[in-house]
Amino acid sequence: MLYLAFFVFLAAIVLFWVSQRQRQSTAMPPGKVIYADTRKWGAVENPLYDAVLKLTGKPDYLVEHGGEIIPVEVKSSKVRNEPYDAHVFQLAVYCKLVETEYRRRPSYGILHYPQKTFRIDYTEELEDSLLDVLADMRRDEFRTSVPRDHQVLARCAKCGYRAKCDQSLEPEKS
């Protein structure tokens, strides 16, 4: 009987250690994971939706802690000193969707890169910038031609419109 109790105790320690390593590897804040868009944690959740903005999104994780719901987005790309603007806006979308779906405004979200984690405050200024970007996107949606706004070959290479784009930086294939 003593051996069984010791084995159960040892198994509990190992499981606790594994769960802490998993939490650290995804930069999870403390709290309960209430949403996960990753097969590691089980079935993939339904997307969050804002009918007014016609906006849909699936954050990697939502963590509930201290009455707050915190979106966590895990990125595989490397980053130097600060997060990419596109990733900040993606996280802002998730903050907005959390506010709509759960009726609670998050004060921040987490962007986790392989070598660095950022806490991004969800300020009124960030929300206003997000709404401006969404308005620009809605306006451009109905235009027949939208001028390219960058000089980055890698962005063109990954763009979903590159086959139709007459401004692509990608070299012509012969």
Please describe what this structure looks like.
- The protein has a five-stranded mixed beta sheet with strand order 1-4-5-6-7. Strands 2-3 form a two-stranded antiparallel sheet.
- The relative contact order is 0.10.
- A hairpin with a 4-residue loop joins strand 6 and strand 7.
- It is globular and about 75 Å long.
- Helix content is 38%, strand content 19%.
- It has a domain of 112 residues: Lambda Exonuclease, Chain A (Alpha-Beta Complex), CATH 3.90.320.10.
- It is an alpha+beta fold and 174 residues long.
Would you kindly provide a brief summary of this structure?
38% of the residues lie in helices and 19% in strands.
**Structural class of the secondary structure composition?**
alpha+beta
With strands numbered from the N-terminus, the spatial order across the biggest sheet is 1-4-5-6-7
Specify the CATH class of the domain at 32-143.
Alpha Beta
What's the rounded overall pLDDT mean?
A: 82
Count every beta strand, where a strand is a DSSP E run of 2 or more residues: 7
Looking at CATH, which topology of the domain at 32-143 would you report? Lambda Exonuclease, Chain A
**What is the H/E order?**
HEEEEEHEEHH
Radius of gyration: 21 Å
**Major beta sheet summary:** 5 strands, mixed
**Count of helical stretches:** 4
Low-pLDDT segments, ≥5 res: none
Span of the ends, CA to CA: 75 Å
Shape: globular
Question: How much β-strand is present in the residues?
Answer: 15-25%
Helix content: 25-40%
- What CATH architecture label of the domain at 32-143 applies? Alpha-Beta Complex
